[in-house]
Amino acid sequence: MKPEWSCLKDVKIIDLSQLLPGPHATTLLMQLGADVIKVEQPGTGDTARQLGPAVFAQFNRGKQSVALDLKSDEGRAAFLRLVTEADAVVEGFRPGVMQRLGLGYDALAQANPAIVLCSVSGFGQTGPYANHAGHDLNYLALAGYWSVPVQVDDKVSRPRVRVSDYAASGYAALALAVAVMSARQHGRGQHLDVSIHDAILSWTAHGAWAARGYEDRPHESPTVMPDNDIFETSDGRHLAMGILENKFWLNLCEAIGADFPALLDARFTSRPGRQQHKPEVNGLLCGIFRSRSLAQWAAVFAPFDLPFSPALSARELFADPHVKARNMVREVPSENAIALNFPVKFSLGLPASDDHVPALGENNT
Q: Which residue in 65, 253, 289, 315 has a CA-CA distance of 20 to 30 Å to 26?
């Protein structure tokens, strides 16, 4: 049941996209009340289906599936009939593919002047990289993700989630919501050009701009904070200590200064002082945290106001009391899998989740 207040409760979106960015964007809008019809290639469907049912379900549960061969006249005609009753189309092809199929923005607008076409591509519809192949790591590399020094002992390592893809999906969902509302007010749709590279660049650019002056001496960059870091413990676990405000350093000293008096050095009392002695401060902290287990540190820090967090294992994550209390994750026993709720709580509620995963073409008429 969709809440009456939801502005997306009668919005219909056609999802031509595959893998992560487009399907995740349409999933977000579906969680806010939109109906999503997934149009897939007959026989193979979304490439995510080939990566396993759990991967496909993650980004496509609750959608309808229609299988259409868009290279055929019959398939294109059926697609355009869907467009006449839709608010938006989301596609993730390389630039020019929709035009070659005869389904570019002008063709869609002829069928439905209020249609919004959202094109999600690696580098956007224009520019020298527009037709380049790419995936998450490529966009991160070209957006300067690793150009910003952040640790005394800095390393280039791959992120554990597809950061740029999720950045793009969030911007795509926001832009789609705005464009659909605008089209409903004015009767005229538009073409949204979502570049995954642009999306992650909007997150990295300020840090990279500041890092330009420190490329030959990265330790001196203000983005390197010796006390705001991840530290290994004696049992091979890790903890995060997010000391930014100076009050937290003082609280850390109160908590363990008696056992580790080197922390009380007058040079380290202020943030500017610690920034002047980064290798020494970071090395001191590394040695301190390696002296006890993660559980011991958790017990020590529990009474203090400190931005301390254990780096949770996968099993610990789903048993975490805060994760459970926030009701973000729900189990889907029939699939031995999980589904995620929308990560914003609406006081008036959101539509009930639909955990059905569509079979390829099950909604063909």
A: 315
